[in-house]
Specification:
By secondary structure, the protein is an alpha/beta fold. It folds into two domains: 99 residues, Urease, subunit C, domain 1; 314 residues, Alpha-Beta Barrel (TIM Barrel), CATH 3.20.20. It is built from 18 helices and 16 strands. The strands form two sheets. Strands 1, 2, 3, 4, 5, 14, 15 and 16 form an eight-stranded mixed beta sheet that branches. An eight-stranded parallel beta sheet has the order 6-7-8-9-10-11-12-13, sandwiched between helices. 47% of the residues are buried.
Length: 504
């Protein structure tokens, strides 16, 4: 009887054993940040969702799936360390309700568009565990991590001006400054919204990092309360005790100087505004001193160059006709963007960027030129700052802030490829961009044990490219294969408006 039971147990275990899926990528050139030179004619073995082997070709074992990658380059999947997955390009709460088809199709396409341009990992800087879990429950999507967004009452981003989803996230992690308990909004108990309590809640919720904000108003506008230095220092101390990096929204010289003094780990945004030096475009002594202090502190620095281009491009008459846009955005959304209702955010921006005469003229070319002129100075300042950081050893992280506002000109995935090209134009080398989007993001965010290089044991989120991305960022404009959790995805099947053949 005993032998019968043991035999039954062995048979049961054999029947329920799941055979690991093995993929061999053969004759590939491995380009990884940990390698001094590319590893040519290599074989990379994947078992399930992990890298099991990297090296010269070896004899095949069992029934491995084989992918001949002759002439292709294998790299780590890209990491975008600044996105907002609950927001949709060009749509706010009211528009989402009024346009259910475009909203639904955009939500379905957004994860695929990130993958289409190589982004296999995203970090949402204003989110919650519930939102992250909903995203990660999708079958085909980049892996998502999240930060809790710690704003102060009345501060940036104003909870009255964000989507309902972001509003709930910000209220959950709001920080009430000591001595200002009376400013807490209804439903927020100051005792449970101290820096220490908020970080503890983020940690228990599974947040990867802490995001906070220093923004008094754009440019020289001074209309919003900014956090006190002691508050953010307490937030940083609590976060570091919990082994969580702190990112701070700071796009000005005042803001980045504050970030250094507070001990933040990452500055989220480039240096668009040089306070009290807003007409300068050559690096001023003050701006240089602040950048040097960030380099000395080894702080992470996110240029987010496409943010302002995402505002400027709303005025480009040809933008919605771009064939590449049609690969990233569903036709239903593009068609709606063309309507007068779809131009709602363009119309809001026009009042701030254009003269009344240009607005009233309805001359699209004139509006396009004036919009570019209006944003030329902050764009130039940020480009100068990016070039300086790149030339002097700054710890640059790849990040896009997609979508940075309810603009349709920050399309997921495509926005990242455009960001890369802006970074190169500003003086970064393709190799620096490659490192910023892989190993540097992984190291700063505490993910280097999982991501950032092509090494045994790491997650099999990889890209097969037709050219070497350390020589040109154009390599990411035509990806041969995306490998997500060890499974091969075809780019054409990730593209928007893709039509599966009959029977599929």
């Amino acid at each position: 009887m005993r032998h019968a039971i043991m035999g039954w147990m062995a048979l049961s275990l054999w029947c329920t054993t799941v055979v690991a899926h093995e993929l061999r990528i053969e004759h590939v050139t491995v380009v990884s940040p940990d390698l001094a030179t590319p590893l040519r004619d290599a074989t990379v073995t994947l078992k399930d969702d992990r890298i099991a082997g990297v090296g010269p070709g070896t004899a095949r074992v069992g029934k491995s799936e084989v992918l001949d990658a002759t002439g292709l380059y294998l790299t780590p999947g890209l990491i975008d360390s600044h996105v907002h997955t609950s927001d949709l390009p060009g749509l706010y709460d009211d528009q989402m309700k009024a346009q259910p088809v475009a909203t639904r199709e955009l939500r379905q396409q957004v994860p695929r568009s990130y993958l289409l341009f190589g982004y296999t990992t995203l970090v949402d800087l204003i989110s919650t565990s519930t939102q992250a879990a909903a995203w990660n429950s999708q079958k085909i999507r980049p892996d998502l991590y999240f930060c809790g967004g710690a704003e102060i009452p009345g501060g940036y981003p104003s909870i009255e001006l964000v989507t309902q989803t972001d509003r709930q996230a910000l209220l959950r992690y709001m920080v009430v400054q000591r001595g200002e308990e009376g400013k807490a909004p209804a439903g927020v108990d100051p005792a449970t919204h101290t820096p220490e309590a908020v970080v503890s809640r983020m940690k228990s919720d599974g947040a990867l990092c802490v995001k906070t904000f220093y923004e008094r108003g754009f440019g020289e506008v001074d209309e919003l309360p900014a956090p006190r230095l002691d508050t953010i220092r307490d937030l940083v101390e609590a976060a570091h005790a919990a082994h969580m990096p702190v990112l701070i929204h700071a796009n000005s010289t005042d803001g980045q100087e504050f970030a250094v003094r507070a001990g933040a780990d990452v500055v989220a945004h480039g240096m668009w505004h040089w306070n009290r030096e807003q007409t300068a475009t050559e690096l001023t002594p003050r701006a240089r001193t602040i950048l040097d202090s960030e380099i000395k502190a080894n702080m992470g620095w996110q240029p987010t160059m496409q943010v302002l281009y995402g505002l400027q491009d709303l005025f480009d008459p040809q933008y919605l006709s771009d064939a590449t846009l049609a690969t990233a955005v569903p036709a239903s959304a593009i068609e709606w963007y063309r309507t007068p209702q779809g131009q709602w955010f363009h119309d809001i921006l026009a009042s701030g960027l254009l003269s009344k005469a240009t607005q009233d003229s309805h001359d699209q070319q004139a509006q396009w030129k004036e919009a570019r002129d209006s944003l030329a100075l902050p764009l130039a300042r940020n480009a100068v700052a990016v070039g300086y950081m790149a030339a002097h050893g700054g710890r640059i992280l790849f990040a896009t802030d997609t979508p940075s506002a309810p603009t349709y000109a920050n399309p997921p995935g495509l926005n990242g490829w455009r960001e890369m090209r802006r970074m190169v134009q500003a003086g970064m080398t393709p190799l620096q961009v490659f490192r910023a989007a892989t190993v540097t993001n992984a190291e700063v965010l505490g993910l280097s044990h999982e991501l950032g290089t092509v090494q045994v044991g790491k997650r099999a989120n990889l890209l097969l490219l037709r050219s070497d991305p350390t020589r040109s960022v154009d390599a990411y404009g035509s990806i041969a294969k995306v490998i997500l959790h060890g499974k091969v995805l075809e780019p054409e099947e990730l593209a928007a408006n893709h039509r599966a053949p009959p029977g599929h």
